Amino acid sequence: MTDTALELHALLCEALQLSPRPAPSMGEGGSLDSIFAVSDLAQASIGAAGSALASLVATPERTPKVFVDRDLSNGWFTYSIRPQGWDLPSPWDAVSGDYACEDGWIRLHANAPRHRQAILAVLGVPGDREEVAAAVRDWVGEDLESAVVGAHGAAAVMRTAAQWRQHPQGRAVAKEPLVAMSRTSPGTGAERRAAEVERPLEGARVLDLTRVLAGPVATRLLAGWGADVLRVDPPDWDEPAVEPEVTLGKRCARLDLRSERDRGTLLELLATADVLVHGYRPGALEHLGFGGDVLAQVRPGLVDVSLDAYGWTGPWQGRRGFDSLVQMSSGIADAARAKSGADRPVPLPVQALDHSTGYLLAASALAGLALRARDGVGSQWRLSLARMAQVLLATELDGPHRERSARPLLLPDAPEVIEHTTWGPARRLAAPLVVEGSPLRWSLPARSLGTDLARWRAR
Fold it and tell me: How confident is the model at residue 416 (pLDDT cuts 50, 70, 90)?
């Protein structure tokens, strides 16, 4: 274990209003190649979720011990699934990536079809990457960023950490708590408490309205402890590169929230949900008719957990964003470029902002369930990728570019069970987290979006 991992774990637990003691045992292992403490953050965030679960099931006589494996944490921050006889598609669209512009670098995010269309419309070129690169070179970075975002696309100029600290959005995010929590409506007075310790979330209903990647990571973990996780997507949404990774343990349905009938179905699901996890930008749920007042009326005592990319205050609070874009905006990509001597942006080795925030989202849901069981109230929890970026930026090493361990993903001897996914057989890495008495165990294999009906399992 490292001192940095323990310090980060204490920081995350403090944000959740959890006691960091007893601290989890963190096994030693390799480090992913970064000038930032990515592997320490992986252990710490996974450990924070473990601490939250331990607090939920603790009794006056006993608090379960928590163990976090470092190598397996690295593995789950990369890919936890190993296809057998089939391949995962590339997670990146051909247009997505970093481009040199007139005065620096910009990242274009084109994985969603509508975001790709926005980029190509602004640049006035077809989808050929070389033509995109040639067009970008004629743009001032911030002008192109503004034009793409204005066209409902997603892009981010590479800024230094100093520039981000002075940027209006950077200043706003710096003032936000890592986890913003507020109490909401009282429960019904008959709220469920933790089930048997071995399956502590058995019977808990989690409505998952999230997309790539932090939210699905959170609900995947909750499913591993027995929660009934129902993921709901629009009819036209797919994310083929990550579905095998993040749908483990869940049922996946589709609803068109532009339809009055499907909005009614969602309200029916919310009426008996315990936890809502969503990644809608500020104001989006209200626009669809599911604002805080409606949620409080439909489901008193709901644990409402939400993620935003660029923070909940400031001029960019409604801006579309993804992990790779926040790395560019916040100074992470530039700092790694400068320290490694590269001539272009250097991203993190994994989508660490997504994964770490995902585990903190799961920990928030668990803390909310514990609060409701103890005090009989619902709660609202708000996190952002940009605020997690601030945590990671503080771990930058003073020395030269850190070299990766020779075997960073060396896995302990553990059985790998064949998982029969929609796409074919696969092996899943052993769980990176052990909470004494409450093993992670997923009852459903990964499946395609839209496989299931939009209804809860019978209790």
Answer: low
Mean predicted lDDT score pLDDT of the chain: 92
Among 431, 437, 443, 454, smallest CA distance to 264 is for 454
SS3 131: helix
CA dist., res. 231 & res. 149, Å (int): 28
Gyration radius of the chain's alpha carbons: 21
β-strand partners of 412:
none
- Whether this prediction's pTM lies above 0.90 is answered by yes
Structural contact between residues 255 and 262, judged by C-beta atoms closer than 8 angstroms: yes
| Best CA proximity match to 273, nearest among 336, 213, 233, 231 | 231
Q: What are the distances in angstroms from CA 13 to CA 217, 232, 276, 365, 391? A: 19, 30, 21, 13, 13
User: For residue 299, which of 321, 327, 330, 266 has the smallest C-alpha distance?
Assistant: 266
Other C-beta atoms within 10 Å of 435: how many? Answer: 25
Residue 70 has pLDDT above 90, yes or no: yes
Output the six-digit token pair for 249. Answer: 């343990």
pLDDT tens figures, 296-321: 899 999 999 999 999 999 999 989 99
